[in-house]
UniProtKB/TrEMBL annotation:
It comes from Vibrio aquaticus. GO terms for biological process: cellular respiration; nitrate assimilation. Its cofactor is Mo-bis(molybdopterin guanine dinucleotide); [4Fe-4S] cluster. Keywords: 4Fe-4S, Iron, Iron-sulfur, Metal-binding, Molybdenum, Nitrate assimilation, Oxidoreductase. Belongs to the prokaryotic molybdopterin-containing oxidoreductase family. NasA/NapA/NarB subfamily. This is Nitrate reductase. InterPro entries: Asp_de-COase-like_dom_sf, BFD-like_2Fe2S-bd_dom, BFD-like_2Fe2S-bd_dom_sf, CT_Nitrate-R-NapA-like, MoPterin_dinucl-bd_dom, Mopterin_OxRdtase, Mopterin_OxRdtase_4Fe-4S_dom, Prok_molybdopt-oxidoreductase. Pfam families: Fer2_BFD (PF04324), Molybdop_Fe4S4 (PF04879), Molybdopterin (PF00384), Molydop_binding (PF01568). CDD domains: MopB_CT_Nitrate-R-NapA-like, MopB_Nitrate-R-NapA-like. One of its GO terms (molecular function) is molybdopterin cofactor binding. Residues 3-53 form the 4Fe-4S Mo/W bis-MGD-type domain. One of its GO terms (cellular component) is membrane.
Length: 879
């Protein structure tokens, strides 16, 4: 790390906080307009995130290290051969909202411009695509009309389908500060779950899943009925109100009927509707509870409809506010990374095709939309895609029905994966694995939720042969151009060069009704790019003049197609985020204090639901979904913020941490028909007590178990892993009755030598030792027929009764520094402790009798007595 002060941006959520790297470490940037110096728990742990357990440093073809020259040759050849034999559409690229704008621009240019296929899609399909559809349908362009400052000016803030306190924490803190300054400011949270965010609201509306369209339709109907719509705004700036209003003139939107459908009281509804109708300045913030649904696009439009009809848009403190998930989800949309967009907010109309072809100087431009994410992997499965390049995303975990995705990829003739770590699950599916430069090692631009463009800057010297993604694509692009007999259009000197070309390209929008135009930056120097200060494009409020991006400059009301509340679905699985983890854990799973909050794969349900299936906290449950025909094992935990028969599981469990217990195994490929965004939040599943007969926990030195499966799967089908610095905790559960036999089997699987074994009160406690090289490392293995409470603090208490985690660590270190106690008879501390822990000796006299220690000069007797005091009791744990 550097000694100077370098300003960059946090690589996690779409709040887009500014970060400063200085002598103090990695801290919040006080000057950054998004966060004014604040960071959340993940942002504060950025320095620790850099110490990844494993890094990819060299390109590898089928596991063999190769040079970049060979790697880029192989990729260019694979794409070229597929194009020649099967056509451009037999190739694909699947990228990510975590790429920087420059990476994204080059990727899009490579696929749509020169490979000649729009089969480039991104994980933003899973994240923002419903909001994109809603914006395009209403505004004529994918535009977010508000900014963070607006929160300070609002009278009413509605958070719909977002757990902002956990997922956009710095923004939520800002909102709370606004409430402290202005006690009149009201907060309404719409979420089927009573989340931490909902608990802090003035009004929480726990609507049934996917009741959002009906709720916002009802809100608009109320505004029509109470004459609180803005007829002038509607007349001057919109189209389509008649058919929408007619649709809403249905008895199902009368207050009482609506309340019944939404399982709310009439008073709750009336209060919300009243607050909205009388608040001139109202903001509706929305995220995945809206987007990730079969009616995601319609939900977005129902929200926007209510704002347009009441004119609550385009001025300070008002408007619909789609919050982005990833750091550059917005930048990717601007560049055109989605398969159904061409570039720079343009689609595949002839005018756009002509302009873009000319700008890129290519005869090969894709002329029609490509496969959306799920369609893309379905095409892979059918064998239609012969080569796919996956970059900065972990689709075998994060896509729904992830076992299907795994199977599909296994069939694909050539899979290229660019990642920073070989631990990412997707790395196992790569024929060719490329080492990408990660956060701190690369640089470029990101755009946050409020259109603020911030520079990520490099502050770490690149290791090995890592390369920024844009450069890897450019090198392949150059070779592909050559093979196609075209002039090389990928001659970029540096990131600034890429950015200038992208900015110049947005100049194609000048003179059109589209608002995205960064052409004023097309000539910035390298130095200006380097010194870039956070800048919001489109001004503070791009729709302030009521001029929208359709040719007639009017906004559109959209009649939602899917307004019905889905009927009761039996058990219903909802999934999303946990406060302290980032996505598939490749960057946060190893940080002990982040891992402690949810230490193992957990399904939450309310106490009534748990009683219904006879499940106690900590017991193993099994979830299955007919549509995927796969099962997920996880530990049950109680959350009375959930309704009856509602389940919630976080999306994070993956890789070595989740050990196969990914929620997406129980999530089907149901999706929104307009956006193709998966319905991650509403799945009909079956759940039951898995009937585990044995639970176990193993605490040991990390290095002992650094690779591969450590515990026999047949004995312990449920396994998870938690990192605790150099120590680690494994949690296991299985269906074999617990006895000494089982324990011995596990012992064999561990390849360890047994030290002590004690069966008491349903608990079996085993201490092991293992000789690794010259050191002796200890691990403790505890099994029980009852669940071992999985909360880390509970765990600490439990273990702490006779052996705290720190004393465990102390034992581990003692083992490494074996102390000679009795010089006369050469007896060391280990031998003494072993006798004590085995239970063979419990007193000084017994030890003297057995080992002879302290029977000669006696100077070591106090030390032996201390060991007796510390270790004489065999570890027994009561429930
Ligand atoms: N800690 C953390 N923060 C993150 C991330 C992370 O991995 N970890 N990832 C970032 C990314 S990429 C994203 S996209 C965002 C996501 O940010 P959010 O959308 O805020 O987070 P989620 O937990 O996915 O889901 C939000 C809420 O939607 C609710 N919900 C489910 N169904 C419905 C419904 O039908 N209607 C309504 N109104 N609500 C419903 C869920 O109960 C859940 O509480 O978070 C970003 N921030
Ligand atoms: N069940 C369920 N599933 C979900 C969701 C949900 O709510 N529920 N949410 C969805 C949403 S909104 C999202 S955004 C996705 C996120 O899902 P993913 O995008 O699959 O998750 P990540 O773990 O962020 O994957 C990023 C990968 O890129 C690697 N990486 C990091 N930096 C770089 C880089 O600079 N270059 C390259 N080449 N690689 C890099 C990381 O090591 C990691 O493997 O998950 C989706 N899946
Ligand atoms: S709020 Fe988001 S951008 Fe800000 S520090 Fe936290 S994760 Fe990073
Ligand atoms: Mo996301």
């Amino acid at each position: 790390m550097t000694k100077e002060c370098i300003k960059t941006a946090c690589p996690y959520c779409g709040v887009g906080c500014g970060v400063e790297v200085n002598q103090l470490g990695i801290v919040g940037d006080k000057q950054h307009p998004a966060n004014h110096g604040s960071l959340c728990v993940k942002g504060s742990a950025l320095a620790e995130s850099l110490a990844m357990p494993a890094r990819l440093l060299y390109p590898k073809l089928h596991g063999e290290e190769i040079s970049w020259e060979q790697a880029t040759d192989a990729i260019a050849q694979a794409y070229h051969q597929a194009i020649e034999k099967h056509g451009s559409d037999s190739t694909a690229m699947y990228v990510s909202g975590q790429l920087l704008t420059e990476d994204y621009y080059v990727a899009n240019k490579f696929m749509k411009g020169f490979v000649g296929s729009a089969n480039i899609d991104t994980n933003s399909r899973l994240c923002m695509s419903s909001a994109v559809v809603a914006h395009n349908r209403a505004f004529g362009e994918d535009i977010v009309p508000v900014n963070y400052d607006d929160l300070d000016h609002a009278e009413l803030i509605i958070i719909c389908g977002a757990n902002t306190a956990w997922t956009h924490p710095v923004l939520f803190r800002r909102l709370q500060q606004a409430r402290e300054r202005n006690p009149e400011l009201k907060l309404v949270v719409i979420d089927p779950r009573e989340t931490v965010t909902a608990q802090q609201a003035d009004l929480h509306l726990p609507i049934p899943n996917d009741g959002d369209v009906m709720l916002f339709n009802g809100l608009l109907r109320y505004c029509i009925d109470t004459n609180t719509i803005d007829e002038e705004y509607i007349a001057q700036h919109t189209h389509g109100s008649e058919s929408l209003f007619e649709e809403l003139n249905s008895p199902q939107y009368s207050l009482d009927t609506l309340a019944q459908s939404l399982q709310l009281t009439t008073e709750q509804l009336r209060l919300f509707f009243h607050w909205f109708s009388v608040s001139k300045r109202a903001i509706t913030l929305f995220c995945q509870g809206v987007n990730q649904s079969e009616s995601g696009s319609d939900k977005g439009n129902a929200i926007i409809n209510a704002h347009l009809a009441t004119g609550k848009i385009g001025y300070e403190g008002a408007g619909p506010f789609s919050i982005t998930g990833q750091p550059n989800a917005m930048g990717g949309r601007e560049v055109g990374g989605l398969a159904n967009q061409l570039a720079i907010h343009r689609g595949f109309d002839q005018d756009s095709i002509n302009r873009v072809s000319e700008f890129w100087q290519t005869p090969r431009l894709a002329t029609q939309p490509g496969y959306k994410a799920l369609e893309m992997f379905e095409a892979v499965d059918r064998g239609d895609i012969k080569v796919i390049w996956i970059m900065a995303t972990n689709p075998v975990v994060s896509l729904p029905d992830n076992h299907f995705i795994k199977q599909a990829l296994k069939k694909c003739p050539f899979v290229i994966v660019s990642d920073v770590t070989p631990d990412a699950d997707i790395a196992q599916y790569a024929d060719l694995l490329l080492p990408a430069a990660g956060w701190g090692e690369k640089q470029g631009m990101v755009t946050n939720s409020e259109r603020m463009m911030t520079r990520q800057r490099q502050f770490i010297k690149p290791k090995g042969e890592i390369k920024p993604d844009w450069r890897a694509i450019s090198e392949v692009g150059a070779k592909l151009c050559q093979r196609l007999g075209l002039k090389n259009r990928f001659e970029f000197a540096n990131e600034a060069d890429v950015f200038r070309e992208y900015a110049a390209m947005t100049g194609l929008n000048a003179g059109s009704t589209l608002l995205l135009d960064l052409s004023q930056y097309s000539n910035i120097s390298d130095e200006e790019y380097q010194n870039w200060q956070p800048t919001r494009w489109g001004g503070d409020r791009p729709l302030a003049d009521g001029q929208f991006s359709f040719p007639d400059r009017k906004a559109r009301f959209v009649v939602p197609q899917m307004s019905d509340v889905p009927e009761s679905r039996g058990w219903w699985l909802n999934s999303g985020r946990q406060r302290d983890q980032w996505h598939t854990m490749t960057r946060t799973g190893h940080i002990a204090h982040l891992a402690a909050t949810e230490p193992e794969p957990t399904v939450t349900m309310n106490t009534r639901s748990a009683a219904y299936i006879g499940v106690k906290p900590g017991q193993l449950v099994v979830m299955s979904n007919q549509a995927t025909s796969k099962k997920v094992l996880a530990k049950a935990m109680m959350d009375d913020g959930l309704g009856d028969k509602q389940l919630y599981m976080s999306m994070h469990w993956a890789g070595q941490y989740g050990m196969g217990n990914e929620v997406n195994a129980a999530i089907s490929r149901q999706q929104d028909p307009f956006s193709g965004q998966p319905a991650f939040k509403s799945q009909r599943v079956e759940v039951s007590n898995a009937g585990a007969k044995a639970y176990a926990m193993c605490i040991g030195e990390n290095a002992l178990f650094s690779s591969g499966e450590q515990f026999e799967h047949s004995l312990w089908p449920y396994q998870s892993f938690q990192s605790e610095g150099s120590m680690a905790i494994w949690r296991l559960a299985g269906f074999c009755l617990l006895n000494k036999q089982t324990s011995l089997l596990t012992q064999k699987a561990l390849g360890q030598r047994q030290l002590t074994l004690e069966l008491s009160n349903g608990w079996l406690t085993v201490g092991y030792e293992e000789v690794a090289e010259t050191r002796i490392i200890r691990s403790i293995f505890i099994t029980s027929s009852e669940p071992i409470v999985s909360d880390a603090s509970e765990l600490a208490k439990l273990v702490g009764r006779s052996l705290t985690f720190s004393s465990l660590l102390a034992i581990a270190s003692q083992e490494q520094a074996v102390e000679l106690i009795c010089s006369c008879f050469r007896v060391n501390s280990n031998q003494i402790i072993r006798e004590l822990e085995k239970g063979a000796c419990q007193t000084l006299e017994q030890l003297q009798g057995k080992l002879k220690c302290g029977t000669n000069c006696g100077s070591c007797i106090p030390q032996i007595q201390r060991l007796v005091d510390d270790h004489a009791t065999v570890i027994t744990l009561s429930k």
